[in-house]
Design goal:
The chain is mainly α. It is 73% helix and 0% strand.
């Protein structure tokens, strides 16, 4: 499911965003994924994270995906979860360009 979400978002960003050499949509998606996982690992309630999506279905789905990952108790594992989630989102994005 995450792969379908990222694929759709990549297509959407690629077709609606103005072309800018310094902006890479996969990096932007990765930044978003990392921020969501940081919130998840920090213990921010899912309802609070969802309140920032403003009804955007992609962000809602990405938030659900982030919150389906366990919350870890040590900083090392929390940072690993952030890095892994970001890399997964970016990998799917780059594969579907």
């Amino acid at each position: 499911m995450l792969k379908r979400i990222i694929t759709a978002a990549t297509i959407l960003v690629a077709t609606t965003a103005p072309l800018a050499a310094e902006t890479d949509e996969c990096v932007t998606l990765g930044d978003t994924a990392a921020a969501l996982m940081e919130a998840r690992q920090a213990g921010v309630p899912m309802s609070e994270a969802m309140s920032y999506t403003n009804g955007n279905e992609f962000l809602e789905a990405l938030t659900v995906a982030a919150y389906s990952v366990s919350r870890f108790t040590t900083d090392r594992y929390r940072q690993g979860a952030v890095t892994d989630f970001r890399n997964e989102v970016e990998m799917i994005c780059y594969e579907n360009r």
